[in-house]
């Protein structure tokens, strides 16, 4: 009888342990209470949850990027509209029937248009400037309070976005892409003249930056790295510099739309950019050149706008892929980590019946006596 009681006590402890796990699973709806319950399954579940966390973070970043993408698209569309209006006004100003006084009125209108373009170029969304490349906390364009010249403060980098594990894609465009145009293409060994406010790029997008090496000696350094071999520069003393392309690549001299506007606005006022008076004929020549330059700037804006569109489309495609992966991962997590509630309910009822039978046996044993056993 003692052996029977020991066996019953042992079976009862097993039932208690299993009943605890069943009730815990029913409560938490999780298949495993501890990793030791099934180490292989537990490791797989942990791996799934890690992937879910990673892709959820990626999806959150993509979602947050939508405002940046849509604002970039809107800003460039508006910039193109403003630039198109500028071209129309310049064409009007360059007709024989337009008087010098009317050209001055158009000059004032273009100054307003320039300010609108500058505001668009410095658009900021969620604390990030749209056209500063990776330097989203740097205001891209600043106007000098003395000279009135507008210059680009960032570099030729491109902002990127994490769209997959260890995968980044380009997002938006920088200020050079959107508000500069090619003023000259310089072949290897060719000599060229440029201003301090122009950008000089190689085919890979690296920038040759003008740096004062000391004592008024200027040189062009690749991406501003003064430890690299420079391109020698001659200071012309009039705000321009001359250099010979000593690289094996064709260099692109990029001119700002803001500088082009300054030049044409001055011409409309019968002045050069230094404020000196010029003739009507000279002004007409400068206006004609200005029209061509602003048209080139518009073409660059068009390309930049298209680039933003294609990059945004790529991001949206990745977003669909990430969403699909998250759905599949969560389904797998539910399959492996989630408790089978139906099976648990059936087992719980079976345990209840087993408990009833076992306690009934215990009760009968407790009621047994030597007299009953002998009779």
UniProtKB/TrEMBL annotation:
Please list the GO terms describing molecular function.
structural molecule activity
Q: Which GO terms describe its cellular component?
A: bacterial-type flagellum hook
Q: Which GO terms describe its biological process?
A: bacterial-type flagellum-dependent cell motility
Q: Name the domain of life.
A: Bacteria
The record ties this protein, via PANTHER family, to:
FLAGELLAR HOOK-ASSOCIATED PROTEIN 3 (PTHR42792:SF1), FLAGELLIN (PTHR42792)
Give the Flagellin N-terminal domain ranges.
18-136
Q: What are the entry keywords?
A: Cell projection, Cilium, Flagellum
Q: What is this protein called?
A: Flagellar hook-associated protein 3
InterPro entries, alphabetized: Flagell_FlgL (IPR013384), Flagellin (IPR001492), Flagellin_N (IPR001029)
Q: Which Pfam families match?
A: Flagellin_N (PF00669)
């Amino acid at each position: 009888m003692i052996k029977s009681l020991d066996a019953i006590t042992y079976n009862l402890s097993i039932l208690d342990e299993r009943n605890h796990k069943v009730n815990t699973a029913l409560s938490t709806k999780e298949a495993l209470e501890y990793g030791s319950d099934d180490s292989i399954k537990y490791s797989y579940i942990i791996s799934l949850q890690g992937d879910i966390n990673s892709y959820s973070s990626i999806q959150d970043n993509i979602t947050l990027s939508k405002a940046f993408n849509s604002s970039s698209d809107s800003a460039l569309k508006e910039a193109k509209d403003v630039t198109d209006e500028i071209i129309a006004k310049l064409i009007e100003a360059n007709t024989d029937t337009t008087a010098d006084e009317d050209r001055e009125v158009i000059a004032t209108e273009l100054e307003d248009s320039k300010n609108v373009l500058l505001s668009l170029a410095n658009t900021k969304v969620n604390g990030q400037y749209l056209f500063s490349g990776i330097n989203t906390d740097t205001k891209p364009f600043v106007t000098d309070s003395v000279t009135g010249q507008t210059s680009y403060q960032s570099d030729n980098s491109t902002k990127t976005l994490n769209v997959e594990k260890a995968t980044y894609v380009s997002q938006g465009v920088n200020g050079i892409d959107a508000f500069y145009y090619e003023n000259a293409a310089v072949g290897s060994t060719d000599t060229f003249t440029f201003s301090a406010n122009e950008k000089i790029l190689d085919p890979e997008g690296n920038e040759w930056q003008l740096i004062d090496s000391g004592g008024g000696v200027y040189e062009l350094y690749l991406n501003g790295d003064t430890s690299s071999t420079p391109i020698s520069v001659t200071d012309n003393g009039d705000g321009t510099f001359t250099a010979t392309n000593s690289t094996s690549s064709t260099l692109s001299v990029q001119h700002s739309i803001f500088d082009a506007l300054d030049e044409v606005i001055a011409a409309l006022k019968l002045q050069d950019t230094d404020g000196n008076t010029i003739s009507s004929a000279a002004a007409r020549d400068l206006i004609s050149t200005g029209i061509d330059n602003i048209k080139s700037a518009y073409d660059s804006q068009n390309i930049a706008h298209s680039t933003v569109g294609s990059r945004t489309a790529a991001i949206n495609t990745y977003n669909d892929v990430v969403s699909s992966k998250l759905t599949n991962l969560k389904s797998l997590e539910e399959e492996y980590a989630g408790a089978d509630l139906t099976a648990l309910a059936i087992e719980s009822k079976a345990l209840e019946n087993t408990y009833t039978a076992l306690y009934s046996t215990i009760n009968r044993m407790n009621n047994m006596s030597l007299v009953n056993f002998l009779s």
